[in-house]
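Case study 2.
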Amino acid sequence: MIDYSPEHTTSEILRAHAEKAEAADRPAPESMNALRDDGIFALRTPKEHGGTWADAESMARCFTELGRACPSMAWIAGTCVTAKNMAANCFRDPSVRESLFADPDALFCGSGVPGAQGKRVSEGVRVSGRWRNVSGCEDAAWAGLSLMVEGTLSFAVIPVADLTVERTWHMAGMRATGSHSLVAQDVLVPAEYVAPAAGFTVADVTLYAITVLGAVVGAARGALDATEAMFASDRKPFMTAYSRMGESSGARQWLAEATHLVNRAERTMLTVARAVDTADLSAAERPRLQMDLADAGRDCRAAVERMLDLHGASGFNTSNVLQRHWRDLSVGSRHPHLNPYLAVESFGATLVDRL
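Prediction:
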């Protein structure tokens, strides 16, 4: 497994350019190059086309460490996995796959929301529509996009160069993902690059949720790094006789609580990832897995709130990395894949159905 510890070169690059990327509302070129050079964009490229087709646990660990340095970059890496997985599932023609995966390190972006309509013509499929919140779209080579083709839910892979990017991503967190809108205006797509959408297995859907959660857990780990650095410094609790934070039993308890919550979230994520890798998951198991993943997201939020309490108002200073991890986590953990009330609703319905 590749080393993505805080001292690793890629982590250093992501950390060094995170603020620049956030200000630009898109990834920093240096960070994108580092991920590409490290093979991150090939994690879900099929092995026969030069990729690694990594398992869920490996990817969860990777995205966590990337997110520890820059949650937005971990998010983009995760959406690339999702888009490539969908493309690999939908397109089986060898010539199409050879074209799509000719560069195993190419960045894919995409959207599973059918934001466009397609009409079949003699030359292929003419596509018009708009997809919102497409992470990494300004830097991607291919876009995997859901659409309706004459009443059928379909999936198309289109060169991003054939589409228009509208810079609509103006968020408090995950700003560096550059999750802008893609627009197709009567774009002609060859018929072989449009296919009926393959049904999602429980393993697929759970993997997609893990790609989201990995960035969230990473953000919590990055916040914990900042909090531990504060404890190691000469910072002391204001208006007390303590000379350092660690002298306060209350502060030590809150640090322990925050650390426990982050550790528990990561353990939960890795347990679910191992289930994806080793078990033949049934539809009946999905609500339980949804609950586990949603709980992990909530643990991360609770942990960072405790860390902010420890820092006090200084944690919100724009020069403090903690506030960026907090904002990124706050946005990322509210992705539909981690929605806690829908997870409870689904799990409750499953329990009642068994009675």
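The chain has a mean pLDDT of 95.
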